[in-house]
Amino acid sequence: MLCTRKDEKVLMDALHCFLEPLQRTFSKTKNKSLLEARRPYVYKHDYWNLNKEKQVYVEVYPNQDAEGKYKFANEEVGWIFLPA
Q1: Distance, CA of 44 to CA of 55 (rounded, Å)
Q2: What is the top-level taxon of the source organism (predicted)?
Q3: In degrees, to the nearest 5, what angle opens at C-alpha 50 toward C-alphas 46 and 38?
Q4: 3-state secondary structure (DSSP) of residue 75
């Protein structure tokens, strides 16, 4: 499923609903030092969830940064869902 940049609220609402039965949630990061670790991309925020019990870490961040640079060439992709 492709989400545009404008789909942030819809995407995050769906992810929150998915995690709700597991009593989990996503956190929104605006911490400058954490976001600076993404250089050369400049993000205003991203989302993450860490489940230590299951050893699963997931991030959601925009494909296009605040300066207009795309992480992935497909400009139709608005958000990146990265399980790590």
Answers
A1: 27
A2: Bacteria
A3: 35
A4: coil
Pairwise CA distance, residues 84 & 74, whole Å: 21
Q: How many CA atoms lie within 13 A of 60 on its CB side?
A: 21
Tens of pLDDT, residues 3-20: 888 999 999 999 999 999
In this predicted structure, the answer to whether residue 1 has a pLDDT above a threshold of 90 is: no
pTM of the predicted model, to two decimals?
0.84
Domain locations in the chain? Answer: 5-83
Q: Is the peptide bond before 62 cis (omega within 30 degrees of 0)?
A: no
